[in-house]
Design goal:
The chain is an alpha+beta fold. Helices cover 45% and strands 22% of the residues. It folds into 3 domains: 68 residues, Integrase, N-terminal zinc-binding domain (Arc Repressor Mutant, subunit A), CATH 1.10.10.200; 82 residues, 2-Layer Sandwich (Alpha-Beta Plaits), CATH 3.30.70.980; 69 residues, Alpha-Beta Plaits (2-Layer Sandwich).
Length: 239
């Protein structure tokens, strides 16, 4: 996994979340609602909920807000029922893009996602058209810090069940199988390690180099997708 520094993108997302925490928390709240509906309110037996809680904590969502979201999702009379849907397509320069959504109206969401692709010079695709280019993995990002010993972190991660450990320019990247994500995260968390990001993600098998002009178009496409209320995550294989 070495050699494909995503630090600039990670910092951009972190800065964005700091200025739009309400929107980020709303999106995570939808993920909590879906997880509770599918597997119940106990994260000890609901791995999906456990993973969403880890994501919430990585985004500095307060514990009481997480608890309220779980209680609300499991309570009677919860009106809005969200459905998880994934869309795929191509951006400028043939870049692959996966869009994960949580919606209460799939016709509205599909229309809006298609419109964004068209407006930004992309092509809205069919299910499976680009997902084969990605691997679903757990990803944990830890900013390099003098207080963190690289060898100790690597050994701790691998012993906890991590699949890969790499050192980038400004951060450590820990990769896990999706089913091992929560176990590795909890082990690191128990030792006081702080995370810049932690989530189940789609990692490209190969990255595509693009021109500066195309990069600007792709970034605009991604930004418009991320600004959509129904969009939870956007992944691309742009370098």
């Amino acid at each position: 996994m070495s050699g494909h520094s995503k630090w600039a993108n990670i910092k951009h997302r972190k800065e964005k979340s700091d200025s739009q925490k309400g929107k980020i928390f709303t999106k995570i709240g939808r993920e909590i609602a879906i997880a509770v509906r599918e597997g119940g309110p106990d994260p000890e037996v609901n791995n999906k909920l456990k993973d969403v809680i880890a994501k919430a904590k990585a985004n500095n969502m307060p514990n009481d807000t997480i608890a309220r979201s779980i209680k609300k999702a499991g309570g009677p009379g919860e009106g809005v029922q969200y459905e998880e849907l994934t869309y795929e397509g191509y951006g400028p320069a043939g870049t692959a893009i996966i869009v994960e959504t949580a919606t209460d109206n799939k016709n509205r969401t599909a229309g809006e996602i298609r419109h964004i692709f068209d407006k930004c010079g992309g092509n809205f695709g069919t299910t499976g058209c680009v997902s084969w280019m990605f691997d679903k993995k757990g990803q944990i990002i830890v900013e390099i810090n003098p207080k963190i010993d690289e060898d100790e972190l690597m050994m701790l991660s691998l012993e906890a069940g991590a699949e890969d450990f790499s050192v980038e320019e400004e951060y450590y990247e820990i990769i896990t199988l999706p089913e091992d994500f929560s176990t590795v995260l909890e082990k690191l968390e128990s030792t006081g390690i702080e995370f810049t990001e932690s989530d189940i993600t789609m990692i490209p098998q190969n990255y595509v180099n693009v021109s500066d002009a195309d990069r600007a178009k792709i970034e605009r496409l991604i930004e418009m997708l991320e600004d959509n209320d129904d969009v939870q995550n956007v992944w691309t294989n742009m370098e």
